[in-house]
Amino acid sequence: MAELGQSLTSLKDMVDTLYHFRDHFFETHSLDEAGSKPTQLQDGMENVLKEFSCLESSAVEENRAMFLYLKGKLLNITGDFNSQAESALSKAVKLSPTLVEAWNELGESYMRKNDWTTARTCFEGALQHLKNKVSLRNLSMTLRQVPASSGEEKISNVEQGLVKGKEAVGMDTTDGQSWSLLGNAYLSHFFQVSQNPKTLKQAMSAYSQAEKDVVAKSTPELHYNKGIALKYEEDFLSALTSFSAASALDPTWPDPASQAQQLVRYLQDIVNLSQLKGKLKAKKLSSLITSLDSVKQLGPYSGGSYKSPSGSTVNLNSISFTELKSGVNTEKVILGVVICSVHTEDTVPFTFIMIDKGGTPIVVTTYNLSPGKGVIIGDTVAIAEPYFTPIDILHQGSQYKFSMVRVESPLVLVINGKKAGRELQAGVQMSTFTKTD
Fold first, then answer.
1. C-alpha distances out from residue 398 to 228, 278, 371, 394, 409, Å
2. In 10 A of CB 397, how many CB atoms?
């Protein structure tokens, strides 16, 4: 940035001071004061705007483009779209096309009104002048949102976004905001490219790095997105804790509380449906259990072995649900009959409950399932080498206790004695999951 005159230096110091107040608010204020932060920020912005009016003529004489950039940056401080900010920043980049900071601020203005295509142009333009972490991480976010003409283009954009996110972190490994947005890039990849548990772990690793930065740690978006990742890792209590942290940091943002309510409802439905055996009548339930025939319904798993995806032969022993151990149950297979599915607002995972010959219920979460596909009541399902987790959590005075098996791909299922076909496997689209991402 060019050397500034006296008026512009004064204005820049005021803008920087207000941003520091915003970003470091919780270092000097308690969480109880979170609700007053937007008002204090708005009041601060209006006070600084008065100074801009007083110093406008001298500042414009020093450098008109810089004055317009600083004014646009000030007007952008609340995080909401501001048409005056967009106007000032548009003028700034016309006057000084190499002013990278102004291109970045203008791009953020377009992001805030969901004009992702123009935002992309801004960040790519800035990068032509100077490689910088702000353009890279914002481009990472923008590429995931920009309209695509095909599924292939969408996936390509998500993968490019992940590359840009990594580049941003590579430029400054101490910047928590870059780490946070890299976590979002991994999370988006999980949903739109492949629901691989390794990708979730990479997202969680990025969020952990972000939390080392005091500024990033005080942003509600970080805790919200971390909560989303934890939910899909099926670490439900930690997810609820993260949503609560996001709400505490910004009580005016409804999404974290909404996510927490949805998750609690999901957990409660699982507990209720497990206890009530899918609300099936005793005669129907008895009929379903009697229909279980391990020889017939294990299908390709019935011979005591099966060919793994790698092509090796794996021995299999059929066990009851009560014999499952935490983690992967190597060389084991379970068989049950579906008694209900569990409704959720999300398309992922497909959740159903089945019972075994002994009448023990178990919850099955299935990932990478093609939209509209699944199982229905009465279907028999065999799962080789199941990944088992006993869930037992206490949240706000309520206990949620049940047994869960996670299935990463429907291709490992045997449904009604037949190996699940490839038509059951697909990726899934994920809707916007933060204020700006």
1. 21, 21, 32, 6, 32
2. 5
Distance CA 184, CA 221 (A): 10
Whole-number Å distance between alpha carbons of 23 and 21: 6
Q: Enumerate the β-bridge partners of residue 366.
A: 350, 407
Look at residues 417, 334, 407, 410 and name the one whose alpha carbon lies nearest to residue 380: 417
- Angle at the Cα of 141 (from 135 to 142), degrees rounded to 5? 80
413 Rama sector, left if φ>0, alpha if ψ -120 to 50, beta otherwise: beta
Contact between 377 and 339 under an 8 Å Cβ cutoff? The reply is yes
pTM for the full model? Answer: 0.91
| Integer Cα distance of 292 and 420 in angstroms | 18
Query: Tokens 């609340």 — which residue?
Result: 78
Q: CB burial class (10 A; 0-12, 13-18, 19+) of residue 97? A: middle
**Gap between the Cα atoms of 132 and 136, Å rounded:** 6
Question: What residues pair up with 246 in beta bridges, in sequence order?
Answer: none
DSSP symbols for 77-99: TTSS--HHHHHHHHHHHHH-TT-
Please answer whether residues 75 and 82 qualify as being in contact, where contact means their C-beta atoms are separated by less than 8 angstroms. Answer: yes
Rounded to whole angstroms, the Cα distance separating 27 from 254 reads 24
How are beta strands 413-415 and 361-366 bridged, if at all? unpaired
Q: Give dist(CA 346, CA 109) in Å, integer.
A: 30
Using the structure block, give the residue that is written with the tokens 């909560």: 227
Residue 291 vs residues 276, 335, 412, 434: alpha-carbon distances, Å: 20, 12, 22, 46
Mean pLDDT computed over 184-203: 91
- What the block records as the tokens of 58 is 């001298």
Candidate from 255-259, 341-345, 397-401 with smallest mean pLDDT: 341-345
Residue 354's pLDDT is: 97
Residues with Cβ within 8 Å of residue 421, at least 6 apart in sequence: none
Q: How far apart are CA 201 and CA 169, in angstroms?
A: 17
Q: Minimal CA–CA distance to 380: which of 422, 322, 318, 326?
A: 318
Tokens 């001298």 map to which residue? 58
Handedness of CA 383, 387, 391, 395 (dihedral sign): negative
Do 257 and 247 form a contact (C-beta atoms < 8 A)? Answer: yes
CB 126 within 8 A of CB 103: yes
Query: CA 334 to CA 301: how far, in whole Å?
Result: 10
Spatial neighbors of 431 by CB under 8 A, at least 6 apart, are none
Mean pLDDT over 391-395 rounds to 96
